[in-house]
Amino acid sequence: MSTHLVGGGRDRSLHRAVYGPFRAEAAEHAAVRSAAVPEIGVVVVHEPDADGQADLDWFGSALAACGDVRCRPLAVPEGGELAPEAVSGLDGLLVAGGLTPAYAAALGPAADAVRALVAGGAPYLGFSAGAAVATGRALVGGFRLGGTVVTAEDNGEECDELIVVDGLGLVEPAVDVHAAQWGTLTRLVAAVGAGLVPAGVAVDEGTVLVLDADGTARVAGAGQVWWVEPAGDGVRVRRQVAAG
To answer: How far apart are the first and last CA of the chain?
Structure first.
């Protein structure tokens, strides 16, 4: 199945374009086990003084707008960890957004289980932080490189220098999000240029990049994605827009 990378944004009019392909793949997986309705896990890493319920409800509503679905809430407090067995038997896994380093830490212990789930045919959708941690080497924060500012300080995720950690290993390129809206493309360009990550893709809000198992890349939604690759002494950036 596919990995769906959403660049953030909460425009309800885009629910079907952004979440519809993921929900459809989860339904296909459910059909294989003769289930009429797909069960999708929704991971929310929340602040210690909250419960994550508002985000769980929002993503549940987004999925329900695309068809019948049963959601398994997987709320994890910042500093906690997602148990590997929590994703067992799912038809799809949606990982929400928030503080990206906290998501990387929370999902790390379940990385093998998530990869096995996807290898078994269940799709993965990452929203914002959930997209950033889907890769093997995840750019999870920071706004400076070698002391030089490469994006707005508000994009730093409570980090100063760029931080790259182990991610889930579902896709190869590093992923940055809110590209056009927050100006994070420059951070990804800097990271690739410095060799912190081998290559990357930045995704706009209201936009999903779908990476199929065969390497096909499809874009849907309101925006575009920006591929960043090494090129000689610098980097090359190419733009991909939604088809049709």
So the answer is: 22
What dihedral angle (degrees, nearest 10) is formed by the CA atoms of 101, 102, 106, 111? -20
3-state helix, strand, coil in the chain (%, to 5): 30, 30, 35
Q: What is the mean pLDDT of residues 104-133?
A: 98
Number of domains in the chain: 1
CA 101 to CA 129: how far, in whole Å?
8
Q: Is the pLDDT of residue 60 over 80?
A: yes
Total count of residues recorded for the chain: 244
Q: Which residue has the tokens 């999903």?
A: 208
12: tokens are: 């309800």
CATH number at residue 201: 3.40.50.880
Q: Tokens 């994703």: give the residue.
A: 87
Q: Domain range for residue 65?
A: 3-241
Does residue 1 have a pLDDT over 90?
no
**Tokens describing residue 176:** 């940055």
